[in-house]
Amino acid sequence: MSKKSIGLLIPVLVALVLWFIPAPEGLSQEAWRFFGIFLAVIIGLIIEPIPAALIGFVGISIVAILGLMGNSGDSIKWALSGFSNTTIWLIFAAFMFAEGYKKTGLGRRISLLMVKYMGKSTLGLGYAVAFSDLVLAPFMPSNTARSGGTIYPVAINIPQLFGSLPDNEPRKIGSYISWVAIASTCVTSSMFITALAPNVLAVGLVEKNNIFVAWIEWAKIMLPLMVPLFLLTPWLTYVVYPPTQKKSPEAPAWAAEELKKIGSVTFKEFLMLGLAILALVLWIFGKELGVNGTTAAICIVSIMILTNIISWDDLLSDKAAFNVFIWFATLVALADGLKKVGLIQYLNDNVSSIFTDMSLTSAMLILIVLFYILHYFFASTTAHVTALVPVFIAVAAQIVPSEQLLPFTILLLGSLGVMGILTPYGTGPSPIWYGAGYITQARWWGLGALFGFIYLIPIIIGVFIFL
């Protein structure tokens, strides 16, 4: 039996076993069977024997055909409900922003400019890579597209200038650049809602509990915690995992030559930059202006198409965007199903009591640390969000006072970015940088544990500052 066949068989067996086991007391058989399918989907997302979006699509199809959400009309309305979710459309629109950066060449230009002006030393190169990510982060919710698709093609050329290759002096400069790149993108992914697609997905899920997280509210809490961590990361890597080459005079010259090749800044690059800034302003102040964030995003995408920054064919042919759109829409429906069938209420009734004898601060810290550490078991931040966010937020809603629930939610969801540093599979660009070959698996796990611990500290400090 092939590895793919085994991978397909495991989730199916899980669903079948739970299907025929009697439901626990207090839970309906339909809810228990839905949980079996939900768990099978999560296991499928971790193993991924078939594309992740297809796993979610199959999941909602099975639930609908079995009538676990009511009659046939109710079931299909539930199955397709995620496709009308405004959060999902915001993610899709933001993928078009990433396409605009790529199509105009603005993202590559920003990275090269950073290397040109900051890359005279290896430490400066680290900061150049980090700041390139930071500049793009508010507008690119796919850190895979940002770090792996935009920064990686530029940064991976730098070590080769000095003869630093995976099989020849990787520690000279290549290992340092690789770790700074992945570590920085994890931090920037926590800074902004729109810097990581699972952030946006998670915000959409918590709305089911009437917790509404605005872009600016997230930034007010996460930026003060993440900016010092961001500034520390290249230097900390320089100390903990130092490159053997400290100077890099060739890098600025190479970047300058590359900039000459791509020529002067074009009108479309200026226009793309202006539209990105406009989107950011509307995301920050949209609530006061009466403009929904998703409305702003899709309007700006329309302008991008009309001004030929991207074409309609670019939108239609963006497989990654449509893949995420279908994937996240199905996961939103599945997560909402947990509440509809009564599973969330069941967990509230049976889990919340564990925290009743604890102090509020201790309970919140345990929830955050447990949520963070459990990422070791997930090969996808999206799977982590779908499986755990509804449960953790439901439990928090029972023990955290209403006036503290919003900041607690932001701190919990804000950890989604930084937890990506834990493993070689922890976030989208991790396999790309790991696959570059400059960092061994053993070294990655060691650095991941160290940086993972350090990256958790600001989140814990946030509990004492904001709650």
Automatic annotation (TrEMBL):
Cited InterPro entries? CitT-rel, SLC13A/DASS
The protein's UniProt keywords, in alphabetical order, are:
Membrane, Transmembrane, Transmembrane helix
Q: What is its main location?
A: membrane
Query: Record's Pfam families?
Result: Na_sulph_symp
Topology relative to the membrane: Multi-pass membrane protein
Recorded GO MF terms:
transmembrane transporter activity
The membrane spanning regions, by residue number, are 6-23, 35-66, 78-101, 122-140, 176-206, 218-241, 270-286, 293-312, 324-342, 354-377, 383-400, 405-425, 445-466
Superkingdom field: Bacteria
One Gene Ontology cellular component? membrane
Keyword Cell membrane assigned: no
Subcellular location(s) of the protein = Membrane
Say which family it is in: Belongs to the SLC13A/DASS transporter (TC 2.A.47) family. DIT1 subfamily.
Q: What is this protein called?
A: Anion permease
| Species per Swiss-Prot/TrEMBL record | Aliarcobacter vitoriensis
